[in-house]
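Let us work through a complete example step by step.
Step 1: write down the sequence.
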Amino acid sequence: MGPDSVGYELTSRALVFGGDTLTATDIAVAAGRAEIGDPSLVAHLDRGLVEAALRRIADDVADVVERMRTSAEPLPVVAVGGGSVLLPDELAGAGEVRRPDHYAVANAIGAAIAQIGGEVDRVYAVEPGRRDAVVDAAKQEAVDRAVAAGASPSTVRIVDFDEVPIPYLPGNATRIRAKAVGELQLTDAKGR
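Step 2: predict the structure and record it as tokens.
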């Protein structure tokens, strides 16, 4: 269990869904902190294991909070998303854990308002006098990828660009990385 995730395969791999992989979701259900899947499929988990897993998760989060603190004062932690049920109401050395209204779905809100992106990261052979054309092509490919992922073409812009010559490779090799983002297109090409 952790720190790796089964990700999108949760509903087929987690024990509470009949899978064979112990996940943090299984721990949350076994501890009575979440109602998802079939709780009877984790009823056999050793109580000591469940408590140890919860302690480990809390300790890891407390460690991260400790590294971010700028003073010795307790720092309230705002917990959002599905995994927030795994945290206690207070973290050792950090302070109170706060959960705002609708905390369990906050990550869905973030996903809904996030911008759509496209990225290119490649080594190009840049012939003399062709740098601008190669850069423009890389940027356009990043824009095209953002649009293909669902961004509205009129809102897409380049937000990050790096160009690093690689002198030990032949042909004026240059690593170009371009990232484009835009707003989610809410209508299709016919305006629906």
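Step 3: interpret the result. The first helix runs from residue 10 to 13.
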